[in-house]
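tool=predict chain=A
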Amino acid sequence: MIPLNILITAGPTHEAIDPVRFITNHSTGQMGYIIARKAQRAGHKVTLISGPAGLNPPSHVRMISVRTAREMFGKVKTYIKGKDCLIMSAAVSDFRPIVCLAGKMKRKNSPGVIRLQQNPDILSWVGKHKGRLIVAGFCMETKNLLKHAKEKQKTKNADFMIANRITKLNTPFGAGPTSVAILCPGNKTLRLHNVSKDKVAGILLDKIQKLWYKKHPQ
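tool=predict ok
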């Protein structure tokens, strides 16, 4: 098989409140980095756009560092050109403060309310401009996992949607085992329970390759 040119996003984003504080989430970037490493070792050409994950960059992978959702959006629009596949595993902040204070917010002067505005929906933008691109998105839900994942797969025009459910007893964050549902084209769903993220990455990459060569036979 001919190697693919793959763009991967990973990690959280940080949305500044003031020079000291920011809005973020619990994403560690582990899943995206594992996918990038496994794809590179399989012979694919990989570009990794990462938020502040604090992980060692995978060897022989083009690494692009960003901090905010808007920075990640800009880099995706730049580096998506000429790619065969986008794997959007980053946990991008949906919101950012309307105003970032120039100085540290003091307790005694706190307004008590931080007004927010929406960040760009990167995956939706990609879905509208994907062309021949294979697109895999990730989502996380606390309830109605498959219902919400199927809605996102459809509305964002993603080929694959990898759905994670978070509960008090199960967290997909970090390097440990995880349980996911991989929604595939043709309304097919593969459930994986308590498996390594390396295994999830391998299965996802295999499905992406098969779909690519099905659409573009050599």
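Residues 197-215 form the longest helix (19 residues). The mean pLDDT is 92.
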